[in-house]
Design goal:
Elements (H helix, E strand, L loop, with lengths): L12 H4 L16 H9 L51 H5 L9 H11 L8 E3 L6 E3 L20 H22 L5 E3 L2 H23 L8 H26 L4 E3 L1
Antiparallel strand pairs: 1-2, 3-4
Length: about 250
């Protein structure tokens, strides 16, 4: 086993660790070209303070007049009062000095008369209900009948009376409308009945004439259908004629 003796060396334990990465270079700061031009022009810097250090005061000649303050200014009106005719005369000084004369009344006598004519106050009826002298008013205690002696006791309230009257008026209107309502059926007069009968007979004659003019041979479907249709209409007209002739009174419904 050999021993190596190292005398001169620059190795340190802290340098063995990895070194942190170097910081990236900073980008140059943005400077506006316009600002450079303004600096070159040397424009004086105005309004860079909050105001005057000491507020300048107006001279005594320029004192504050009415309506010139910070508040609301007084509105000047251009209105002119144009009075037509003569005005009443100005009252004189002596007119104000005149006062109404005091009435010569003796208030003592008036008070004495009032006291003599005044009625004594009636004591309110009370009731003692215990031996210790407990007193209570009789009115409202229930000891004596009060509500049964009232004028409106046992009567119907006013609002119910009005309501019943309103309902009765509506019922009367409905009843009157039903009594005077026109009937649905109407009796035709004898003249109208005769005109109806004549019209039915004339229609039957026209249809009978057209039926007799039909061909004897019905060999096609349209001929058969036309003949059957005319037969049905003739039967119906005969029934209607018989109905009108057998009934002297005929009612019709609208």
């Amino acid at each position: 086993m050999s021993i190596v003796e190292i005398i001169n060396h620059d190795e340190v334990i802290y340098r063995i660790l990895d070194k942190p990465p170097p910081e990236p270079p900073k980008t140059p700061r943005y400077e506006s070209q316009l600002e450079r031009q303004l600096k070159e022009l040397k424009i004086p810097k105005l309004r860079r303070t909050f105001g005057y250090a000491e507020t300048p005061l107006n001279p005594p000649e320029k004192f504050l007049r009415q309506g010139e303050g910070v508040g609301h200014p007084i509105k000047k009106s251009d209105h002119k009062c144009n009075v037509s005719g003569k005005l009443p005369p100005v009252p004189k000084h002596n007119d104000f000095a005149k006062r109404a004369e005091k009435p010569n009344t003796n208030f003592r006598v008036l008070n004495i008369k009032k006291v003599i004519k005044a009625k004594p106050k009636t004591p309110e009826p009370r009731l003692v209900d215990t031996r210790d002298g407990h007193i209570k008013k009789i009115k409202g205690s229930g000891e004596i009948p009060e509500y049964c002696l009232r004028k409106d006791f046992g009567q119907m309230p006013a609002y119910l009376v009005k309501r019943n009257r309103r309902i009765q008026k509506q019922l009367d209107k409905i009843k009157y409308a039903e009594e005077h309502k026109e009937s649905l059926c109407k009796l035709i007069s004898a003249q109208e009945r005769q005109e109806l009968l004549n019209d039915l007979k004339s229609n039957w004659q026209i249809l009978q004439k057209a039926f007799l003019q039909l061909p004897m041979l019905t060999d096609t479907i349209p001929k058969i259908l036309r003949k059957t249709k005319m037969e049905q209409e003739l039967r119906q007209l005969e029934k209607d004629i018989a109905l009108v002739e057998s009934n002297p009174y005929i009612y019709i419904y609208e």
